[in-house]
Amino acid sequence: MSIEVRELWKRFGDFTALRDVSLHVEPGELLALLGPSGSGKTTLLRLIAGLERPDSGTISFEGEDATERSVRERRVGFVFQHYALFRHMTVFENVAFGLRVRPHARRPSESQIQARVHELLDLVQLEGLARRMPTQLSGGQRQRVALARALAVQPRVLLLDEPFGALDARVRRELRRWLRKLHDELGITSLFVTHDQEEALELADRVVVVNEGRIEQVGAPDEVYRRPATPFVFGFLGEANWLSTTVDGRKARVGFRPDDLELSLTPLDGHAFPARVSRVQSLGGRAKLELMSANGGLVQADVPAERVRSLSLSPGAEVYAAPRELQVFFEDASAK
Amino acid sequence: MTSAVLRESAADPATPSVRAALQDPPWVRATLIALALGFVSLFLLLPLLAVFAQAFSGGLATYFAAITDPIALQAIRLTLIVAAISVPLNAVFGVSAAWAIARFDFRGKNLLITLIDLPFAVSPVISGLIFVLLFGAQGLLGPWLIEHGIKIIFAVPGILLATTFITFPFVARELIPLMQEQGSEEEEAAISLGASGWQMFRRVTLPNIRLGLLYGIVLLNARAMGEFGAVSVVSGHIRGKTNTIPLHVEILYNEYQSSAAFAVASLLALLALVTLVAKRVLEWQIRREKQS
Questions:
Q1: What is this model's ipTM?
Q2: Least CA distance to B202: which residue of chain A?
Q3: Do B226 and B268 touch, CB atoms closer than 8 A?
Q4: Is B192 on the interface with A (CB under 8 A)?
Q5: Which member of B193, B195, B292 has the closest CB to residue A149?
């Protein structure tokens, strides 16, 4: 199902959470809302779900205006950051909840509910845990119960708020792959909120970068990473070095990644600039260097450790640094 | 409380230094424990025993005669009626107030929280007087009530009003922190899964707060049955008509029928014991639920 968000504004008291946000979501797409905490990404998700009402703007599902529709009518599956499992119900009853609260006429029979819940528990690989209480589950298991519960009502869209936020790194990676696979199997339009750029880039079809209540850029992972629209996007998606300079007579900020730097003892090309090594930190196969560029800017470099040895770099050494790829943001153009 | 803390830290091998730091010399502990036990015996246990000793001092027959006396029975009946009405009323009010305060932000929220505590802050006698001033014959609404033949003061409705007012904070005060702590995510989840407001309340909210609610109701009931001050002011002490158990005890005592007075009083003492046990059981269950 497609989602169309138009010119959405939302304020909480003096705080403006969303400023004029517009977004189009393709049917069947897996979309990441990526941004720092307080950027408004969760608010946007809750507005789409109908858990909050916008101050102005519209939200439509499949071309049909849903702004005035209640959460119940929107048929969205919402997975909460801390799962919000019903603490006094078993796993089975949690998943069955959405079926049991249906109006009489549309409520499935007990045997249908049994079959549907077991099918869902099978899907999320929790078949044996139907009788457990939520407190007897690990974080990853709770997450999957929350997902099965949301899927039970056959939602038209799945909304996940920081789905992996409360899990440890290993479980997080596992679940991430699993969720991607599940999404590809079910083909349900899904949006998830995250502050972890790696998660967004790995998992999503498209990434929406949100900052201070505005959308900075929407694009495929590779696109937002390689062709960032704003300095913020470039800085948020990875480590960044910044140099102020003039390009074609215009003031500009030039950004490049520490691991996109080529170090050499003689200038390699026109972009190379001289610098002095001020710190060398070896981390196994890679080495992190701090360079002081000739115009006084501090530059971080991340190069193979072998390169440091072959150039015999140590604090005080003079080198040339050449960014393989760089982003130019003109000061006058980037009023954002 | 202190012993629970000590036990917990003793069971935790990671904090031996903390445990040692908290350990007082034996004589300090012995003195404190003796003081606490002595105080409890002198001011709580001894009077309780005295009530029962006095109640049975005239023998079993006198005891049962005192509590089956028609006037005593009427007082018991009235007390039960008052509790049967004011307890559900305040349970409903308490849940609504706690819901409003824990779930919504609105203007005057802090004022509402303060007002809920008012009955605890004001002397019960003043609470009773407020109703006399409002509804009494010389009161603000007195002439209108007399004109329409409605009797509130020196009648059962007055007793109900006073009791309900006095016991108003119990449930709300118990539920507000509980509901604030639990947050509204489970309720939002229920709604997003298609539950109606009532289905959400019955299937999610109520089961989550049930122990806290019961706890509040147990305390509320004990107070509703035992309230003296406010009820005394509005009741008029009409024997066989507007006397509750506490008022009846006072009348018997003032008439030098001390064993009858204590016999009826023992009913209230019994209620207190049942309340304490119920309270304790609920506390255990709440703690168990929190731990799991």
A1: 0.84
A2: A101
A3: yes
A4: yes
A5: B193
| Token output for A112 | 């249908």
Measured between CB atoms, which of B192, B195, B203 is closest to A49?
A: B192
If you measure CA to CA, which chain A residue comes closest to B197? A72
pTM: 0.79
Contact A303, A289 (CB under 8 A): yes
Give A275-325 pLDDT, tens digit per residue.
Answer: 999 999 888 889 999 999 887 788 999 999 888 888 888 888 889 988 888
Out of A51, A87, A88, whose CB is closest to B188? A51
Residue A58: exposed, middle, or buried by beta-carbon count in 10 A (0-12, 13-18, 19+)? Answer: middle
CA–CA separation, A232 and A30 (whole Å): 23
Report the alpha-carbon distance of residue A161 to residue A153 in Å, rounded. Answer: 18
Q: Quickly tell me which residue has 């009427």 as its tokens.
A: B74
Q: Which residues make beta-bridge pairs with A60?
A: A4, A65
Does B203 reach chain A within 8 Å, measured CB to CB? yes
**Range name among A19-23, A150-154, B204-208, B286-290 with the lowest pLDDT average:** B286-290
Q: Does B189 touch chain A (CB under 8 A)?
A: yes
Beta-carbon count within 10 A of A303 CB? 19
- What burial class does residue A249 get, using C-beta atoms within 10 Å of its C-beta: 0-12 exposed, 13-18 middle, 19+ buried? exposed
B292 reaches A (C-beta below 8 A): yes
Confidence check: pLDDT of B106 > 90: no
Residue B11: pLDDT band with limits 50, 70, 90? very low
| B190 interface with A at CB cutoff 8 Å | yes
DSSP B233-280: HHH---TTTS--HHHHHHHHHHTT-HHHHHHHHHHHHHHHHHHHHHHH
Give A84-140 pLDDT, tens digit per residue.
Answer: 999 999 999 999 999 999 999 999 999 999 999 999 999 888 989 999 999 999 988
Residue with tokens 């519960």: A149
Q: Is the pLDDT of residue A334 over 80?
A: no
- The 10s digit of each residue's pLDDT in A44-71 is 999 999 999 999 999 999 988 999 998 8
